[in-house]
């Protein structure tokens, strides 16, 4: 029997009150991952429906080849806490995150595992419920809408093109896990995880997966409240969980772009311009540090010197785009130098 530290894969599954799905989940895992160099880590997040007893019975039977670790938390602490606990107790070269509710297909997890192990350049794959032509069952419009809006906001904040930030099926190489420090204990863990991966300059690949949405009556845990809370986490991970230099850049860009906006419109329209430009400035401050932002501001000022009325507006827009282009080139030039914190 291989030692624990020789595992190729650790599958971390957070679980809370899923007694009706455990047997089927276990059978699916055996169908696709029944190997001695794989460990299954189920973190029972304070279940009260008998899930713990059933899991212990399955563990005792030992009619499987993989290493089965069962971690039981005394109280329900949230999906994020369960995932953090599972990852801390994992030994695999790859860590696969999967939900216990069978909304996602274990077969897709196996396909993702095969892809990442056959291409050493890929360090991270996220499942996406919106990409594939695979089988889907989802008639909850609001949940679907919030998920897509959150992914769009995430993409704007982090310059990504992800279609499904909230999908619970993900696989990461150990080198990715060692770079991140997860801290969110509830469903916001998906945003926390994705933001830290991007911040550490790992590219996120996506893989289309099947999706079988279940209702609250069938045991669905996430609610519309969690959807609204996710907006808070998006703001937090983008505008507060930053280095000092980035926070200074955000403040600087917000102020100067708000100032630029004050030159447009009149009355209420002027106020709206200031707000819109300030928001735009805060996003620019995320991507460009002080000197890069100053280049953009300088070119906006130059643009304001040309034309009259609408002509001035077009000139400002042109020089603004030109400024972003030059700032990006400058940032790229200084990226690997000691001056990168200023560009």
Summarize the structure.
The chain is an alpha/beta fold.
What would you say this structure looks like, in words?
This protein starts with 8 loop residues before the first strand and ends in a 9-residue tail after the last helix. The strands form two sheets. The chain has a seven-stranded mixed β-sheet, with helices on both faces. The chain has a two-stranded parallel sheet with strand order 6-9. The protein is elongated and about 80 Å long. The longest helix has 25 residues, at 310-334. The chain is built from twelve helices and nine strands. By secondary structure, it is of the alpha/beta class. It has two domains: 4-239, Spore Coat Polysaccharide Biosynthesis Protein SpsA, Chain A, CATH 3.90.550.10; 244-342.
CATH top level label of the largest domain? Alpha Beta
Which radius of gyration do the C-alpha atoms yield?
24 Å
Residue share in helix: 40-55%
Q: CATH H level of the largest domain: which superfamily?
A: Spore Coat Polysaccharide Biosynthesis Protein SpsA, Chain A
- What is the total tally of β strands? 9
Order of secondary-structure elements: EHEHEHEHEEHEHHEEHHHHH
Give the number of helices: 12
Indicate the mean pLDDT. 87
Number of domains: 2
CATH fold label of the largest domain: Spore Coat Polysaccharide Biosynthesis Protein SpsA, Chain A
Spatial sequence of strands, sheet with the most strands: 3-2-1-4-7-5-8
Structural class: alpha/beta
Instruction: Give the biggest beta sheet.
Output: 7 strands, mixed
Percentage of residues in DSSP E strands: 5-15%
**CATH architecture descriptor name of the largest domain:** Alpha-Beta Complex
Shape: elongated
Q: Low-confidence segments, ≥5 residues, pLDDT <50? A: none
Between the first and last Cα atoms, what is the distance in angstroms? Answer: 53 Å
């Amino acid at each position: 029997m291989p030692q624990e530290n020789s595992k190729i894969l650790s599958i971390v599954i957070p679980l809370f009150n899923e007694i009706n799905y455990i047997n089927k989940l276990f059978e699916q895992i055996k169908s696709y991952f029944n190997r001695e160099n794989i460990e299954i880590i189920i973190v029972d997040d304070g279940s009260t429906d008998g899930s713990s007893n059933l899991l212990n019975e399955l563990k005792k039977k030992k009619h499987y080849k993989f290493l089965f670790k069962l971690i039981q938390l005394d109280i329900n602490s949230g999906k994020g806490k369960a995932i953090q606990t599972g990852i801390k107790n994992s030994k695999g070269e790859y860590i696969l995150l999967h939900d216990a509710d069978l909304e996602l297909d274990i077969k897709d997890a196996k396909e993702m595992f095969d892809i990442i192990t056959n291409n050493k350049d890929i360090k991270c794959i996220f499942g996406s419920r919106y990409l594939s032509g695979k089988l889907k069952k989802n008639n909850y419009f609001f949940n679907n809408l919030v998920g897509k809006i959150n992914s769009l906001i995430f993409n704007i904040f982090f310059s990504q093109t992800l279609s499904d930030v909230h999908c619970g099926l993900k696989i990461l190489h150990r080198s990715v896990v060692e770079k991140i420090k997860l801290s969110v204990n509830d469903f916001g863990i998906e945003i926390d995880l994705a933001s830290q991966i991007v911040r550490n300059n790992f590219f996120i690949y996506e893989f289309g997966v099947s999706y079988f949405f279940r209702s609250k009556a069938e045991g669905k845990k996430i609610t519309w409240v969690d959807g609204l809370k996710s907006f808070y986490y998006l703001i937090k991970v983008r505008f507060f969980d930053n280095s000092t230099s980035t926070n200074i850049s955000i403040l600087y860009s917000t102020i100067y772009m708000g100032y630029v906006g004050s030159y447009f419109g009149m009355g209420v329209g002027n106020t709206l311009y200031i707000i819109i430009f300030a928001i735009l400035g805060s996003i620019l401050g995320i991507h460009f540090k002080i000197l890069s932002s100053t280049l953009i501001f300088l070119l906006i000022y130059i643009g304001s010197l040309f034309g009259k009325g609408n002509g001035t507006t077009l000139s400002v827009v042109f020089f603004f785009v030109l400024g972003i282009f030059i700032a990006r080139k400058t940032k790229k030039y200084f990226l690997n130098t000691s001056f990168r914190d200023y560009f």
